[in-house]
Write a structure and sequence with these properties.
This protein has about 120 residues and is α+β, with helices and mostly antiparallel strands. The protein is about 40% helix and about 25% strand.
């Protein structure tokens, strides 16, 4: 039986803190940092990959699930709405808060394949 790749999309909020960017995976309260949005996303994806792979190999994937503080979910909602409104009206979305969906291939993690998560 051929199994399809199980993709899970992590909600990632990227926001500026001082001079650096923070990428926060909301369902797992895992953070990545970088001088650019792309670098912060790449960092958080690496952190997610490491944490999930470890938890899956230990047989306890549920331990990764740890909700970030409510205030970050509210910022994510606002950033998603702003992006939607901007795209629907053809205007520019604010760039200080970015709501991203980062696909993670869960099947690849189970089989310890090398995988890359691609930013949407």
């Amino acid at each position: 039986m051929h199994m399809a790749h199980e993709n899970f999309e992590a909600n990632v909020l990227v926001f500026r803190e001082d001079t650096a960017w923070t990428a926060l995976a909301l369902e797992m309260d895992i953070r990545g940092y970088g001088p650019t949005v792309e670098a912060a996303l790449k960092d958080v994806i690496g952190m997610l990959q490491a944490q999930i792979t470890f938890a899956v190999q230990m047989g306890h994937p549920e331990t990764v699930w740890h909700r970030a503080e409510e205030k970050y979910w509210r910022i994510w909602d606002r950033a998603r709405r702003n992006k939607f409104v901007a795209e629907a009206s053809g205007s520019e979305a604010p760039t200080d808060e970015i709501a991203d969906l980062v696909p993670l291939s869960l099947l690849a993690l189970k089989h310890r394949d090398e995988w890359t998560a691609v930013s949407a």
